[in-house]
Structure formats: C-alpha cells, structure tokens
Amino acid sequence: MTAPSGPLRSIRVTALAAALGLSLAGPLAAAPPEPAQSGSTITPSVPHRPLALANGIRFDGPATAPVQGARNLFVVHCAGCHGFDGAGHPDQGVPDMRGPLGNFLHLPEGRGFLVQVPGANNAGLDDAQIAAVTTWLLSQFSPATTPPGWRPYTAEEVAQWRRQRPADVAARRAEIVSRLKERGISLY
Fold first, then answer.
1. Residues 137 and 160 grouped into a single domain
2. CB 119 within 8 A of CB 78
3. Three-state secondary-structure class, residue 163
4. Ranges of the chain whose pLDDT falls below 70
5. Where would I find the H helices in 59-154?
6. Which phi and psi (to 5°) does residue 94 adopt?
7. Taking CA atoms, which of 26, 59, 73, 97 is between 20 and 30 Å from 79?
8. What is residue 40's predicted lDDT score, i.e. its pLDDT?
9. How far apart are alpha carbons 45 and 126 in whole angstroms?
10. Which pLDDT value is given to residue 18?
C-alpha cells in the first residue's frame, strides 16, 4: 500500500496536527498550495507540505510533564503498588499505609525506616520529594497514629537516613515492631 499524496495527504496531516494540538501556522503553513488534481473533489484545508509536520515535531523532549506536589508524586510513583487509597497489598508484601504507619514515628529508627524502605529508594524520587511524599502520606493516611507534635521530614534528614539503609529490611522492620510493642504501641 502506498502513502496518500496530494490533497488526501494534506487532510491527514491536518487531522494529525489537530489531534496533537499543533498549530499549522507560521513556517509550516508557508508552502504554496498544491494544484488540484484533475477530477478531484477534495479541497485541502491546508496546502500539501511533505514531511513539514514531521520535521516540526521533536521526539527528543521529555515524555511527560514534570510532576509536582506530594499527592501527585504519590499517584505517579507510589499508587501503582500501594493503591490510590494507600491500602497496599499486605498479602503480597506491599504494606498498608493507612492507620498504623504513624506509629513508626514513635522511635527515631522507625522514623528513619519509613524513608529507607526499598519502595521509597527505588521510586526515582530525590530526597526532597521523598520527604514531601512521606510527610503527605503520614498526614493523609495515618494522622491518628502520629505522635503529637511530630515534625515533617526534610530533604537533609532523608539524605542522612538513606545513607544508612539496612541490609535486611525485613529484619530491621521486625526489630522496630518489637521495640514499639515493648512500648505498648501496636502496628495492627
């Protein structure tokens, strides 16, 4: 099958440009109109410009717009596993962020643990973004279990904790849960 030419191609280029939200004004519209083919009843809405549209599109730019805001970062980088409501999949090793998450803040090492877990470190977020998302998570999903007067995470704090990541995350979590239980704080 051959590619359409003449007015039919111009119509397809126009439709593609409209679908992509592109304007065909300026240099792309500067080509002279193509003469009508004999017997043609199609009138192009823009003149024929071979490859003009394709040459005007850059494919080396970012694939998505930058994400800003803790909630949006959570949706883009965390909700795929933890769900939009933070429920996670505990039966598959993805913790529930609702409720008892704030109890980790009752211990300094528990506070650090929340930003040392693989999910936080492998999400592609920088220290400031992890601080913002973790603070948002605690405020959104676990406000009843956070200690009174708890402070938001900072990028500097996250950087410090991330340099001290545990080799065995499950063992570290078990230690923290045990220490919390000794203080009468239960996660479940």
1. yes
2. yes
3. coil
4. 1-67
5. 70-77, 79-82, 108-116, 118-121, 127-141
6. -105, 110
7. 59
8. 52
9. 48
10. 55
**Structural tokens at position 99:** 């409720």
> How far apart (Å, rounded) are the C-alpha atoms in residues 150 and 41?
73
- How many other C-beta atoms lie within 10 A of the C-beta of residue 112? 21
Tell me what pLDDT residue 51 has. Answer: 47
Q: Using one digit for the tens of pLDDT, what is the confidence trace for 116-140?
A: 998 888 888 899 999 999 998 999 9
Return the H-helix or E-strand segment holding 131.
helix 127-141
Residue 50 in tokens:
């071979």
The closest of 145, 150, 149 to 186, measured between CA atoms, is 145
**Cα angle, residue 67 at apex, residues 156 and 150 outer, rounded to 5°:** 40
Q: Decide if 183 contacts 106 (C-beta within 8 A).
A: yes
Question: What's the confidence (pLDDT) of residue 27?
Answer: 43
The b-or-e profile of 137-146 (16+ CB within 10 A means b, else e) is bbeebbeebb
- The two three-digit tokens of residue 184, written as one number: 């009468």
24 and 104 housed in the same domain: no
Q: Report the number of distinct structural domains present in the chain.
A: 2
How far apart, in whole angstroms, are the C-alpha atoms of residue 131 and residue 41? 63
**Whether the model pTM is above 0.85:** no
Cα 7 to Cα 147: distance, rounded to the nearest angstrom: 70
Beta bridge partners of 111: none
pLDDT score for 29:
45
Neighbours of 156 (CB within 10 A): 11
Q: What is the CATH number of the domain that holds 78?
A: 1.10.760.10
